[in-house]
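agent> Task received from the user: take the single chain below, predict its 3D structure, and emit structure tokens. No templates, no multimer pairing.
agent> Plan: (1) validate residues, (2) run structure prediction, (3) serialize to tokens, (4) report one or two observations.
agent> Step 1 OK, no nonstandard residues flagged.
tool_call: predict_structure(input=
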Amino acid sequence: MTDNASRAIGLVARTAPVHFAFAVVRLRQPADRPALLALGHALASVAGDALPAWLATIPAELPAAVRWVVVPWQPALGPALAAQREAVLAAQDRHGIDRAWFHQSTTRLRADVDDLPADAAGGDPDDDDRRWTAGPPPRRPAAPLPVDGLAAIDERAAGADLGIALKLAAPPEPGQDSVLHAFLSLWLAPYEGAVGQAGVVVDEAHGAVQLWASGLTGAIDTLHLVEHLFAVVGALHEVVPLVHGRFGAPSIEARREAAPFVFAGNPLLATWLEEGGRGVDAALAQPGPWSAREQAHMLRELAIKVTTPVATLPGLDEEFEALVADTEEPAPVAPPAAAPPRRRAPAVLAAELLAERAAADLLHRRGLDVLRPLLAQPDPGEVRRARVVRIVGAAGDPAAVPDLVAVLEACANPDGLTPSGRPELVAAVVDALATLAHPMAITALADLVVGSGAALDPVRAPALAALAACLLAPGGRRPISDKVVTAGLALTRSSDDLAAASAIWAMARLASTQEPTRLGRVRAALEATTASAPAPRLARQAGLRWLGASVAGYADELSALVRAHLEAGQHQAAAVLAALAEPWPGELAAPTLAALSEAPPLALRVLARRVRTGRGGRR
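)
tool_result: status=success, residues=619
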């Protein structure tokens, strides 16, 4: 033995009438029934008059030997306290006690609290000792571990349920359920008569537990109850190490299940805020005590919270509400040089993270099942739907195509954007449909290409590129109207070099799916193109090559130009030009392809994978 005091923690003198007290004993080796009976008799001075009743609770046949034992404790003074210390010290050697923790509750809500004067029963009653028989119970402002969901707690406790799920740092051991019940009683002991039902749900498979109470009366102040719970959780953490928590009471069904699932919080939120996507990947690769099922719930929850406006989800964590709010920051009063640097909204960062994971096929498919229905739900500003569109597009989720087409049809028509159409949302849908390349989108994309109104101009060239991708997809080849061909060729003559280059390449790909007359019309138009700017000129060469013509080599110039745009941060230009190499693996020089693979925008890194593998295909 080293420090005996450190092995009998909390064994102190009684300071007030005790309403509830117990000792948690951790043994060095699991004990069977005879060993438990012997331990109880050795601690007779600790248990006092409660010993016979406690011995009677030990079943004739234990399901398993236990290392954890909860013994009743009758706090004492003077010689009686000394006798208890001697008994614990002796039992350390004789009965294998590794450590013991002692806890007592010495106060309760006064039975006549409703009869107190207004200045005591109202206002801020937590600071008025007159509400308690021996002063308020211990409380702390926060738990010693991360706890989610504080904002979901209703400040009006009357009739409410309150609970907390806790993730154990190690798998549960036989006997720990009695420890959890003891700490539940320690939490609720001061509120006797003001609580209806209470209990503990134990998820042995996932090493998580949930303490809960229901039927709370109006005599309980919720803040006081929560801060007292924090103190109890802190005491439990010293006995049974915990890693995370989450406020929430289990459903009635979960309380009755033989094998319940307890989800005790989502540490991934803090991880991606602090470390980004790589941190999340590292956390998932080294899960510690978290199971695959728990990780799937984390990713689903992250997807829902990130892509749903705060106002539509009552009960989000306060810290999350502050982090994912979509409101703009107010303009700084001080001059720009004195203003703090603006950070991108964490909601944007989270959406990017989910899109990254989706593109890498690391987003759980059940997360997509949760996100997909949001495509049919308009929201103010369409911020949420645009984020969801990018995620399902990056995931290559074919089940989302009908919803994406419906969004496009609701936002745009041949006369331009509808009153509910947002350019950013339309652009996101077009990009997603280009990635998904599904024939179902052909009609809607063709309508965008030929639609009237200046509001459609920014998305015409991308829509033309997406249309070509859909026509080239399996089962996509079908005749398109001369009106589409005429509109597409007009885009190839755009004064915007990047838009012209994108249209030239798209028209070559589109023409390869059409009958000879239309194909010949497009090929003749491309041969007659005399653009001198690098982007449209290179697009013309790639387009004619796609259509089977013999063209001079341009790979070195293309690689150098893509690399120059990447180094200048001109990502859109780099994307338009790199797409010209997509059908021909090895077209881009290795250093350029490496730079493309490391570029910040997700779209460029996805494009790099397509260029490397030739996923653009040949006609």
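agent> Step 4: summary for the user.
The first strand starts at residue 8 and ends at 9.
agent> Done.
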